[in-house]
Amino acid sequence: MAQDRGRDNPGLPDPATNYSDWYTDVILRSGMADYSPVRGCMVIRPYGYALWENMQAALDARIKATGHQNAYFPLFIPQDLLQREAEHVEGFAPEVAWVTKAGQDELDEPLVVRPTSEAIIGTMYAKWIQSWRDLPVLINQWANVVRWERRTALFLRTTEFLWQEGHTAHRTQEEAREEVLRILDLYRDFVERELAIPVIAGVKSAEEKFAGAESTYSIEALMGDGRALQAGTSHDLGQHFAKVFDITFQDLDGERRYVWQTSWGVSTRLVGAVVMVHGDRKGLRMPPRVAPIQAVIVPIWRTEEELEQVRDAVARLQRELSTIVRLEVDWSDQRPGWKFNEWEMRGVPVRLEVGPRDVREGRATVVRQDTRTDPGGALKEQVSFDTLGRRLPALLDEIQTAMFQRALAFREARTRRVDTLEEFANSLATERGFLLAPWCGDAACERKLKDETGATMRCLPLDAPPEAGSCLVCGKPSSARAVFARAY
């Protein structure tokens, strides 16, 4: 993989004291992305795009396994389609980009650059759905969208970003609700198993739900600085868009009825989540299942004779291991220590060191990067050349599990129960994290918390046990604890 190797590798900012600069620097210096000449946009470089491709492949397989098919809808949406759904337009109005000219000619009707696709897809569903036999419609698309953000950050919030958006239509309300929760659990499984990021699945408040939805469900993750990140959403659209776009079908009894719809999506902000949840002061730490490179071989030699010995051994390993793991060999002319730092910064899960002594003894020094900041430093082991093909997959599985457990332990340590407004504010001031607080469900109390502390209601966890209490803002009865946090 081509990369810049013409200079030394200076240290990254310390995330404990300068998290924002650390986040930006590690993305830029690892070759994941760079700033575009267009304000708020980014260029996803090969290393970052390889991570996204691996994530996309794992999620796409899950989506297709549940019976959904991929399609593609236009980037441009006629103004009148978006304006048919007033609530939807209001929700996106500040972020919508418009096309008003083609060449030198003014367009007869302005076009919206897709902020999301409910309007255009609803229009097409109205044409395609006529009978109960046409249902359910289960379509997903991988696409780019544009939202004119005022404040941007690489991967987390950019003017243009990549995502998948599923849009389904159902005969009954029950089927649609089952779909919403099925996808929510699919997202949870994907993020936890593939990205090694623990999440809380729950329902959003009315204040935080998607514009035009009956209800919105989300998975919420905790980043390394204690801020929350909405990692995925699944929306129950009810019949709202069906009525706006006249999506009806002839039911079993001959009556025409409106369909019940859902929409759901995750985006390239999950790349940012991987960086923030697992990265440390040495750089990225990639979960093995989605890592662009799972193992790197660093050959070590001093003389030409040693180089020939090492080259032959490494060539053999490369032939044998390239079909087992995503492998890179670093033959650059940099010093071994520089290479170690470089691949640590790029987050490759496993490093294999092969020098003249290793060749003589028929083994490699295997270094796992997920433990590098643990007491005692990175764990190393000597593995024979003959058993590397078996050991590496097992080691990558161990690393994947350990990364999830480490992230889970961090989240649990940063999750606190509070019962009063004073405890709420003091806890946030002391250390960011998830706060579990009794809340009556009133939007006014939710807004008061946000105005006074900067924290938002992330979700009401689906697995939260009933718990009678008193709202920490107004004192009215509450039946469960909601999750609050300052968020990206």
Task: Give your account of this protein's structure.
This protein has 488 residues and is of the alpha+beta class. The model is unreliable at 1-9 (pLDDT under 50). The chain has helices at residues 19-29, 46-65, 79-83, 86-92, 118-128, 173-194, 240-244, 269-278, 304-321, 336-345, 356-361, 388-413, 421-430, 443-453; strands at residues 33-35, 42-44, 69-70, 76-78, 97-102, 105-113, 137-146, 160-170, 200-203, 215-222, 228-238, 248-250, 256-258, 260-267, 295-299, 327-329, 350-354, 363-368, 380-384, 415-417, 434-438, 456-461, 469-470, 477-478, 481-485. The longest helix is centred in the C-terminal third of the chain and has 26 residues, at 388-413.
**Measured distance between first and last alpha carbons:** 32 Å
**Helix run count:** 14
Outline = globular
CATH hierarchy, class of the largest domain: Alpha Beta
Mean of residue pLDDT values? 94
Main beta-sheet strand count, sense and barrel state: 11 strands, mixed
- Give the CATH architecture of the largest domain: 2-Layer Sandwich
Tell me what portion of residues adopts beta-strand conformation. Answer: 25-35%
- In CATH, the homologous superfamily of the largest domain goes by the name Bira Bifunctional Protein, Domain 2
